[in-house]
Amino acid sequence: MIAIDRMSIGSPPAGFSFARTGGGAEGEWSVVADPTAKTGRAIEQQSADRTDYRFPLAIHENFSAKDLIMQVRFKPVAGRVDQAGGIVVRFADPDNYYVARANALEHNVRFYRIVAGRRQQLGTSNIRVTSNEWHILALRAEGDRFTVSYDGVVLFEVKDDTFGDAGGVALWTKADSVTRFDQITITTLP
């Protein structure tokens, strides 16, 4: 569990570095007070740059694994182009990784691989994603199998072997999404 409750409000989240896939402005990541978060604090991506092909990343430093379960509680707060939040696994660099994401404007959860900066959809599920409410997104990566869950329900499983090595993990948003993240847990698998 990443200890958001020990991070300073108004500062970038400790233990993270930041990058962006695509164009537009860099993301603006900060720890904010949120009485609805489990510890009263959340990590928020605040930049409202409307560049469509723009994916701000908050990369958890000093972590690498191949097989893991990553789960995050997230809340889409605002955005006209998108209201999305996601989790990245097997992060090699800002242009090569897997991401599971949920979008409150499109009402779907999708799984992509990003190869050389290009997004390729591998799985999808149409499901209601509400704005300004907390949801739980989870991604299990084990070998070439990826299982995506939303609010405790498994939505789909896909197989892909594009990124077979250990890699980092990150938080992800899209375009002008202002999204909060809480209760980030990472469990490595044997």
Largest sheet: 7 strands, antiparallel
Structural class: mainly beta
The tally of strands reads 14
Q: Helix count?
A: 0
> What is the succession of H and E elements?
EEEEEEEEEEEEEE
- Radius of gyration computed on alpha carbons: 15 Å
Approximate helicity band: under 10%
Mean pLDDT: 97
The geometry reads as globular
The percent range for strand residues is over 45%
Distance between the termini: 18 Å
Side-by-side strand order of the widest sheet: 1-4-13-6-7-8-9
- Contiguous uncertain segments of 5+ residues: none
Which helices and strands appear, and what pairs or packs with what?
Elements: E1 16-22, E2 29-33, E3 41-45, E4 54-60, E5 68-78, E6 84-93, E7 96-103, E8 108-115, E9 118-126, E10 135-142, E11 145-150, E12 153-159, E13 168-172, E14 178-188
Antiparallel strand pairs: 1-4, 2-3, 3-14, 4-13, 5-10, 5-14, 6-7, 6-13, 7-8, 8-9, 10-11, 11-12
What does this structure look like?
The chain has 190 residues and is an all-beta fold. The chain has no helices and 14 strands. The strands form 2 sheets. The protein has a 7-stranded antiparallel β-sheet with strand order 1-4-13-6-7-8-9, with no helix packed on it. Strands 2-3-14-5-10-11-12 form a 7-stranded antiparallel β-sheet, with no helix packed on it. Strand 6 (84-93) and strand 7 form a beta hairpin. The chain is globular. The model has no long low-confidence stretch (mean pLDDT 97).
Core attributes:
single chain, 190 residues, mainly beta, 7-stranded antiparallel β-sheet, 14 strands, 56% strand, globular
Characterize this entry briefly.
The protein is mainly beta. The chain has strands spanning 16-22, 29-33, 41-45, 54-60, 68-78, 84-93, 96-103, 108-115, 118-126, 135-142, 145-150, 153-159, 168-172, 178-188.
